[in-house]
Write a structure and sequence with these properties.
The complex is a heterodimer of chains A (787) and B (235). By secondary structure, chain A is of the alpha+beta class. Chain A is built from 22 helices and 20 strands. In chain A, the strands form three sheets. Chain A has a six-stranded mixed beta barrel with strand order 3-4-9-6-8-7. Chain B is 28% helix and 29% strand. Chain B starts with a strand and ends in a 12-residue tail after the last strand.
């Protein structure tokens, strides 16, 4: 090993704490890049493989009742590769040992062949016998939630007929990677199950012999879904077609897609921040090393080392830091990606996860790490190479300070000399002060970006469950029923209040913009499920008007006063032009609301209801569920408390993990930035601070200068951190918002305070570590060494 | 005979580097007198600076005892030494050690802010002939001017003792003489006991007392009956 390489290793050993502090920040960037790109790949590859192997359909449509003979016409549509007709419907389930009802989504399996599309993947047992009228398979998460296996049974209320169903196996399906029950806001595997039964059994149950009400199509490669959905709509028009749609509206795929997009966003936003900070720290530390080693550089040149060799020598020091950071990042990233993949596999019902972080991702992360540190070190290394040997051997001139307008201000404030030293040093190196401050501001922002979600979720829960949906439960009917049924509901055990609600699927159009959603209507003054305007005041929709949620309105580019076309997908599929009379704020779904009477008039019908909102007497719940299980027309009950709990549990698990990670990251950034900055301060000022000690300043007085400057920078960073944090929170709120849900931007003072406390605390801790060195400063030897 | 201000008894200072023991001071008995200007002469490594550091409360002796007037410095705590330096000692170093971010005036104020009975910073700077350069930063001054600021900073607290380690070491002879003039002037005007370390044998001619060092010990002490003015010294 050459002497200059020995020097390299010894320099690295001497600087190891600073090197590790930088390497860890770099490792964060590498790990997050690996995890997010790895997860993004894993999730999208798994999805693609699963969709392909199990032939997930491209287009879906529902109808009231279409003859099987229509299927061949559907197959003839241009671009359709294959089509499969099914019978699907909902049923209330009665599960032994469960007093509460559960809802089953029943889907038929073809009688004469294996399924062509949306092929269920058998996890245990076997598919039902096509001739059997009682054998079923259920989705594995539902089976797990109830401890079901092949041979177990439960009963279902199929159109008024209570039938005992025997489980022959459990399956997973590409159609139900994310399962959410009708009317529910969150997945609940115990309350909602998917049940596949033979076509014969389903036809009997739903009175569909020779007919179907659900069709899926696979399209030929490269075919856009729109022409096909249009053609399909035309064919289904006379059979109560509810509007065909592509994968983008299919619930499971839409949720999965939203998640994959989030991962992509994360891989684009976060790693560059970490790489940037690491580059800055490397640059700061390298400049200092080169300032300290000035005379050595002169010496190396004097004895014949070339500029390139010297430049490389310092770049290699940065390279060593990068190597440590990249290796730690690779290991952490692999572990993190694997555990996240496992979490995803559990949250989404994938039969397998193709987790393969390709070598190019590792290579990319490694290269990014190396490039970052080299970039940071380049300027300093070039400066070293450019030093003329004769000049390098002489001590550097003292740093230049000039009087400025700030000096007059400081004089007026009668600051002590120590405070003047702090302020002048900040102003003397404004870029360095700014970048240090920016690093700490990013740490503050990181905490805000993570913790604002807590408050956002509190607001979501408050608005969804305490302000708008105040009912204890929603009863869902299989078809709309005359409003008189509400009276029957009131007579059910435990029901205290009952209110009508009508729901229709519709496509809203404004110019070239359109959106598929549901239009809800309630009687004016409804107390349980309420429509609130943007100020939180209850709003009754005037007859003839329509009220939209903010997001839906901005999607359609309409404002109150504009007209839009509403094509109802139910009834006669009529289109009406309605005036937008107001906007409301909701976080789940894309709401559209009408007056109850006005809706009945549009549909030319006596008042009908699709769901009834009820409040309940807790003590009579068991009796209520027992009755519902026997009531054929009720296809489901959505309990709001269960929904809220499920929502909060799911979110809480993720939030706790996410918050801990982000706070750890913020602490890491703060320690990396502050420790390095303070060490450099100490190294630059050792002589100055030692002089002060000799002049009779105590240890406290002297450390005030070091701690004061660092903490002042940390304080200055706070408002910037708040602003950046608020901006990132805004970006997150926008990017996480989809048609399915919205994350509101809620920023409370407590969020800012927490972020500042974490960062100021970590900064103080780091600078106190450096202060210990200051206390141990050997006055005599410091004074003897010439800079 | 003047009053003794410093007294040492058999002080030694040993630096241990690995297995090697280096005796920087090997038993020094010394007395310095109030109001005198003493020059410590000797080659590099003879122990002059080590002695000065111990007298100034920057370092502890390995063995032996040190008194400043009636106060024993030998085992004084760190805090005690800080107070001792603050109240009684002024230092002047070869490399000035000014704070680059403070102007001349502010560098002096560093000391006047923490001393019990200081002279105004402006007065101290006037004494060293820098009344017109008070608002300049160190980077805007010559070496001699910087050293004079350092002296002004040392004397502004009206110290009883002024310890100078090679104060002219980094200066050319004309500037060096100016600095020595200032030191002598302070010594005469305020009666400040002044100790000057130097390599430069010529400087001994301005001292009341000259102590020669060799290998960590005092080799001889000379008392000058007459002192030359710095301007009469040339090197």
């Amino acid at each position: 090993m050459q002497a200059i390489d020995q020097k390299l290793l010894r320099d690295f050993k001497r600087l190891w704490i600073q090197a590790v502090a930088i390497a860890l920040i770099l490792a964060c960037g590498v790990a997050i890049l690996l995890t997010s790109v790895g997860m993004y790949n894993a999730l999208s590859e798994t999805r693609d493989a699963y969709y392909e192997r199990n032939r997930f359909a491209d287009v879906f449509a529902h109808a009231t009742r279409a003859p099987l003979s229509l299927l061949s016409e559907i197959e003839q549509i241009d671009g359709v590769l294959s089509a499969e007709a099914r019978i699907s419907g909902y049923a209330i389930l009665d599960i032994a040992h469960r007093t509460r009802t559960a809802v089953g989504h029943i889907i038929s399996l073809p009688e004469t062949s294996d399924p062509v599309l949306n092929v269920p993947l058998v996890v245990t047992g076997r598919l039902p016998d096509p001739a059997s009228t009682y054998e079923v398979v259920v989705n594995a998460p539902f089976a797990d939630a109830h401890g079901f296996g092949p041979g177990d049974s439960f009963s279902a209320n199929l159109k008024g007929q209570k039938r005992e169903l025997v489980i022959t196996g459990t399956v997973l399906s590409p159609e139900f990677i994310y399962t959410i029950g009708p009317g529910a806001l969150m997945p609940d595997d115990a309350a909602f199950g998917i049940i596949w039964m033979s076509e014969r059994a389903a036809a009997a149950a739903f009175d569909m012999t020779g007919a179907f009400n659900d069709v899926s199509l696979a399209l030929s490669a490269g075919m856009r879904p729109e022409p096909v959905t249009d053609a399909l709509d035309t064919l289904l028009e006379n059979y109560g077609g509810l509007g065909a749609y592509g994968r983008d509206i299919q619930t499971s795929d839409a949720f999965l897609d939203a998640e994959i997009n989030q991962l992509r966003g994360m891989s684009m936003i976060l790693p560059p921040i970490f790489f940037g900070i690491a580059a800055f720290l490397v640059s700061m530390v390298m400049s200092r090393i080169i300032a300290l080693e000035r005379s050595e550089i002169g010496l190396l040149k004097a004895i014949g080392y070339s500029n390139t060799e010297i430049c490389l020598h310092y770049l290699m020091l940065a390279g060593l830091i990068a190597v440590v950071g990249v290796i730690v990042g690779w290991i952490a990233g692999t572990v993190l990606a694997q555990s996240t993949a496992a979490q995803y596999a559990e949250f989404f019902n994938f039969p397998y996860v193709i987790f393969r972080v390709s070598y190019w991702v590792y290579a990319l992360a490694g290269l990014a790490g190396l490039a970052t540190t080299s970039l940071g070190a380049t300027q300093a290394a070039l400066k070293a190479a450019r030093l003329a040997p004769a000049i390098a051997m002489q001590p550097p001139a003292p740093p230049r300070f000039k009087r400025s307008f700030i000096d007059d201000a400081m004089a007026r404030m009668q600051l002590t000399q120590s405070s003047v030293m702090i302020l002048r040093s900040l102003l003397r190196w404004p870029l360095r002060s700014f970048l240090t401050s920016l690093g700490l501001a990013l740490a503050v922002a990181s905490v805000i970006a993570a913790t604002f979600i807590n408050d956002a979720l509190d607001e979501i829960v408050d608005l969804a469950f305490y302000q708008t949906n105040r009912q204890d439960a929603m009863l869902l009917f299989s078809d709309d029923v005359p409003e008189i049924a509400v009276q029957d509901v009131r007579n059910l055990p435990g029901v205290l209040q009952a209110e009508s609600q009508q729901v229709h699927a519709a496509i809203l159009r404004h110019g070239h913009l359109s959106k598929r959603t549901v239009v809800e209507s309630r009687r004016p003054g409804s107390d349980l499920s309420r429509v609130l305007d943007t100020d939180g005041v209850q709003l009754d929709v005037p007859p003839g008007g329509i009220v939209l949620s903010n997001r839906l309105a901005s999607h359609l580019d309409v404002e109150p006063g504009d007209h839009l076309d509403v094509e109802f997908l139910t009834g006669q599929r009529e289109t009406f032009s309605l005036r937008v009379t107001g906007l409301v704020k909701i976080h789940f779904g894309l709401g559209a609301y009408m007056d109850f009477e006005a809706m009945n008039i549009l549909f030319r019908q006596a008042p009908r209801v699709s769901t009834v909102n009820i409040t309940l007497d807790e003590n009579e719940m068991d009796a209520l569920h027992a009755v519902i299980k026997e009531t054929p027309r009720i296809t489901g009950i959505v309990e709001m408390d269960e929904n809220r709990r499920s929502f909060q549990n799911t979110i809480e698990e993720n939030i706790v993990v996410m918050n801990s990670i982000y706070i750890a990251v913020a602490v890491l950034i703060t320690v990396g930035v502050t420790y390095n900055a303070a060490r450099i301060q100490l190294s630059e000022r050792a002589r100055e601070l030692a002089s002060l000690r000799i002049l009779g300043f105590g240890k406290g007085d002297v450390s005030y200068i070091l701690i004061g400057e660092m903490m002042l920078i940390a304080l200055i960073a706070q408002p910037f951190g708040w602003a950046i944090g608020a901006y990132i929170a805004h970006l997150m709120s926008t990017s996480f918002t989809s048609d399915l849900y919205a994350i509101p931007l809620v920023l409370k003072p407590a969020t800012f305070s927490l972020a500042s406390l974490v960062v100021l605390g970590a900064a103080l801790g780091s600078v106190m570590i450096v202060r210990r060195r200051l206390d141990r400063l050997d006055l005599v030897s410091v004074m003897k060494t010439r800079e | 005979m003047a009053e003794v201000i410093f007294r040492t008894e058999g002080i030694t200072k040993v630096y241990e580097t690995g297995d090697v023991k280096v005796f920087a001071l090997a038993g020094v008995d010394l007395a310095l007198y109030k109001g005198e200007l003493t020059v410590l002469l000797g080659p590099s490594g003879s122990g002059k600076s080590t002695l000065l550091n111990i007298l100034g409360g920057l370092d502890h002796a390995t063995d032996g005892r040190v008194w400043f007037e009636d106060t024993e410095l030998t085992d004084m705590s760190d805090r005690g030494l800080t107070k001792y330096r603050r109240d009684h000692v002024g230092f002047v170093f070869q490399f000035y050690n000014l704070v680059p971010s403070l102007t001349a005036r502010e560098n002096v104020q560093l000391v006047t802010d923490v001393s019990p009975d200081p002279m105004p910073a402006e007065e101290a700077l006037q004494l060293v002939g820098l009344e017109k350069r008070m608002d300049h930063f160190p980077s805007e001054m010559s070496g001699g001017e910087q050293q004079r600021v350092a002296i002004a900073r040392a004397i502004a607290k009206r110290p009883q003792i002024l310890l100078c380690d090679e104060p002219t070491g980094a200066l050319d002879s004309t500037t060096g003489v100016q600095v020595l003039e200032v030191l002598r002037d302070i010594n005469e005007r305020f009666g400040t006991t002044t100790v000057v370390i130097t390599h430069n044998a010529e400087i001994q001619r301005m001292a009341h007392r000259v102590i020669f060092f060799q290998d960590g010990k005092i080799s001889k002490t000379v008392v000058n009956k007459t002192q030359l003015a710095p301007s009469e010294i040339a090197w």
